[in-house]
Amino acid sequence: MTIQLYDLCGASKDLRFSPACWRTRMALEHKGLNYETVPTMFTDIPSIAGGGQRTVPVIEDGEQIVRESYDIAVYLERTYPDKPSLFDGEGGLQLSRFMHWWTGATVDAGIVKLVLADIHSILDQADQSYFRESREKRFGKALEEVQNQSDETLQAFRASLLPLRLALKKHDFLGGDAPIYADYCVFGSFQWARMVSDLTLLEGDDPVAQWFERCLDLFDGLGRKAKG
Amino acid sequence: MTIQLYDLCGASKDLRFSPACWRTRMALEHKGLNYETVPTMFTDIPSIAGGGQRTVPVIEDGEQIVRESYDIAVYLERTYPDKPSLFDGEGGLQLSRFMHWWTGATVDAGIVKLVLADIHSILDQADQSYFRESREKRFGKALEEVQNQSDETLQAFRASLLPLRLALKKHDFLGGDAPIYADYCVFGSFQWARMVSDLTLLEGDDPVAQWFERCLDLFDGLGRKAKG
């Protein structure tokens, strides 16, 4: 059985940039499961997987439809317990919930202000209209006013990563010697920025940057190869 | 064998307020180990456990001397694998390292600005001199200038807890249905504030406040009873 992953794409179907979809893709790789990605635009989402979806990732695993990146990871762990563990135990599964929310509230919230207009620029025309309208409503101003790549904004973003930096200072991954789902969770956000923008988010000697490079090398360089 | 925990105290030896010492104490309780606390003032630290210590907690377990709250938790887990697990697996142990740093960089860093002068007020006279000198050097201003309990500071602190709030919204503990070390790690910080100050840190309907109340009830109300 091949799992279908509905994976957000840009105007180019090969441009896969959603942080949450990257989490799921890395989780599928880690589990060593057969899967294929279905390129999906924002405006396709309501019609995928039988309809009624509002966000991606969504996976179809036979009859099962599962959505939300953390819930998908838990589903994969429970459904395929004999495959390599995403969490290394129940404590890891529970704390990955915190990691999910920390990533959203800190990393994603920081990155979105740095690249919001860049995201718009890689979308298909229909998606561009949807994206501009929905995001300008959410932020209360134009995409180009939200996006701020000033040195001050970058410094504040880098400072917000302090706990990640300290946790990675003496370890290759959040999982220790090897990556676990928490690594993929945070990786997705940096990969998102990398896929849509040429902005240098991190300084080269930052342990976070070095960890991200290690993540780009995983699974035969899957993340690295995704950007030509 | 009874483990000795060197536990920071105020002018009253019964007033135990160190966030890191509370982490260790809750971990010892969780493990169900025999231990006793040794009330220790800041100015006692250099002479405890054979000398050369700079911070507490320090534990003595027979010949073993272990320091630093996270390292102590890992030591207890590895040394007493048959006792209830603090991490529920290796993934939990690894992600607790991130939780440790997140707590320090976010929760402790926020609380210290709210209660720094309150901490001073509960110390013994010799400790007061040490504390004022070392902390005023660290912050570059008077304790009373650092401490700011304005509504704006409180709101910013509460906002910084968003990932914790979201992770606890549908779960009793960071560990899920039952507490694990990550809960004790964050608990220690809120207990620190509670022990030294009457400031209301959290609004009553905040899931974080409700989780903290559950933590105060653990181990026959150990944390709650610590403050008369």
TrEMBL record, chains A, B:
Entry annotated with the keyword Transferase: yes
Q: Does the keyword Transferase apply?
A: yes
A single BP term in Gene Ontology: glutathione metabolic process
GST N-terminal domain segment(s): 8-84
**Keywords, in A-Z order:** Transferase
Q: Which InterPro entries match?
A: Glutathione-S-Trfase_C_sf, Glutathione_S-Trfase_N, GST_Omega/HSP26, GST_UstS-like_C, Thioredoxin-like_sf
What Pfam families does the record tag this protein with? GST_C_7, GST_N_3
Q: What is the protein name for this chain?
A: Glutathione S-transferase
